[in-house]
Specification:
five-stranded mixed sheet, single chain, Rossmann fold, 7 helices, 3 domains, elongated, about 30% helix
Length: about 350
């Protein structure tokens, strides 16, 4: 537990030293009484402050979605397990949040601002709790172990949305089978129960009998987004962080537009499903990914499967490290951020 003497405490001890000097030189009982009261005050301040932090612990520390370079908020729950003493005047993380009073055997939660400069996984960082209770002469600080692992996502930036025109993961060509799309599949004779809006009046007038339209089933264009975590030796290693940020920004843009897409990488393949869960899984991958020397064979296999299936494929990669395929569109950070 850390201990520091505050400015107020220094002044009080200086005054106490003056009173002590005067009392021993004058033998004045009033000064002796003042000296005794001052010493008792210092002792009470020291013991009460120490006891306020003695039985504290962190029961929970949860961080809301955190992105590099942006302020996020962490919920810290403190527990006072002291059997006899309450905790007072608590400051969390240097006073970023305060807990005025915490009764024994009770919990209290507070929100603390966090700012992480880099993506990644942060774990094992203790929570700093301090107090100057009751008189402010001493400052006590204690580092409490926190059961937490915080994942910080890459920095998300605006991208050139015109690059995604035609790649929204929906609204593709009509299949040659009956359905509920917008394109005409065939004309047939009217049968009871057909909706009047489907009657083709011009053809019906020519043939002298009611004819209705059957529409083709609209097929969604399948979209696959890939990420190549490679960087050439001629580039600055810091540019890899820009590449990760570009890929994460593209994924977030697609999710916010409601697109459904397959995501492939060297160690990950995520099919379209719950959009929010898919986004979180991909961003978690981006938070942890590091640069590699070679493209994994599994990635090339997934890429080939997507191309054979007829997917529209977008790769986020540097041009010099991307697989050489004419049927794959490569977007590098300079292109994605060019006109944002």
């Amino acid at each position: 537990m850390g201990l520091s003497l505050t400015r107020e405490g220094f002044r009080f001890l200086l005054l106490l030293a003056i009173v002590s000097f005067a009392a021993f030189n004058t033998k004045n009982n009033v000064l002796y009484l003042m000296l005794s009261f001052g010493i008792a005050t210092v002792l009470v301040d020291f013991v009460a402050g120490w006891l306020s932090l003695r039985w504290l612990s962190v029961a929970r520390a949860e961080l809301a979605d955190a992105y590099a370079g942006l302020t996020s908020y962490e919920t810290v729950e403190l527990t006072n397990s002291g059997g006899m003493f309450d905790a007072c005047g608590l400051g969390v993380e240097g006073g970023a949040a305060t807990v005025p009073f915490l009764m024994r055997d009770k919990n209290a939660s507070c929100r603390v601002e966090r700012l992480y400069r880099r993506r990644g996984v942060y774990e094992g960082e203790p929570v700093s709790v301090s107090t100057r209770f009751p008189f402010g002469f001493f400052g006590f600080t204690r580092k409490l172990a926190a059961p937490r692992e915080h994942i910080v996502y890459p920095c998300i930036r605006a991208i050139d949305s015109t690059l995604l025109i035609g790649h929204r993961g929906g609204g593709g060509s009509a299949a040659q089978r009956r359905g509920q799309g917008d394109d005409l599949f065939r004309l047939r004779e009217y049968v009871p129960g057909d909706h009047v809006h489907h009657v083709h009046w011009k053809t019906s007038a020519k043939l002298g009998e009611l004819m209705v339209r059957e529409l083709g089933e609209a097929e969604e264009e399948r979209l696959t987004v890939g990420f190549v975590p490679r960087i050439s030796e001629t580039r600055d290693p810091a540019e890899f962080e820009i590449l990760v940020s570009a890929a994460a920004s593209l994924v977030c843009q697609l999710v916010r537009s409601g697109a459904r897409f397959l995501f492939i990488a060297d160690e990950l393949e995520l099919s379209p499903g719950n959009i929010r869960e898919q986004e979180k899984s991909i961003l978690t991958y981006f938070a942890k990914v590091g640069a590699c020397d070679e493209i994994a064979p599994e990635f090339l296999s997934r890429l080939g499967t997507a191309v054979q299936r007829g997917d529209a494929v977008i790769l986020v990669s540097f041009e010099e490290t991307a697989p050489r395929r004419a049927d794959v569109r490569v977007l590098d950070p300079e292109t994605l951020f060019a006109h944002a």
